[in-house]
Design brief:
Length: about 100
């Protein structure tokens, strides 16, 4: 029969707020790189007719510019995240004795 004696949901681990922030801030540069790569591919496909009326080429340029912005902002958020978390821990550490 079933030899599993663990209760249902016993292995569920809820991530902390710092782990959630770290996940999303590390995901943004990857999304930015993907958008930039998509823009490069679109621009390369539509580069044969290099005019400002070429919609595919202009959309490709937009993806390149948008991807660079998302990449830079994601890297900035990821770099500033540890200082934000430390400040937040200090605030919570100072408030702990007041709550007790």
């Amino acid at each position: 029969m079933n030899k599993n004696t663990k209760a249902a949901g016993a292995d569920i681990q809820v991530p902390s707020q710092a782990q959630k922030i770290n996940y999303w801030t590390s995901l943004m540069p990857r999304i930015g790189f993907g958008l930039m790569l998509l823009g490069i591919i679109l621009s390369a496909c539509f580069a044969h007719d290099f005019k400002d009326t070429n919609l595919g080429l202009m959309i490709g340029f937009g993806f390149i510019i948008g991807g660079i912005q998302v990449l830079l902002l994601g890297s900035l958020f990821h770099a500033l995240q540890p200082s934000f978390a430390k400040e937040r821990q200090k605030l919570h550490g100072e408030q702990q004795p007041e709550r007790v």
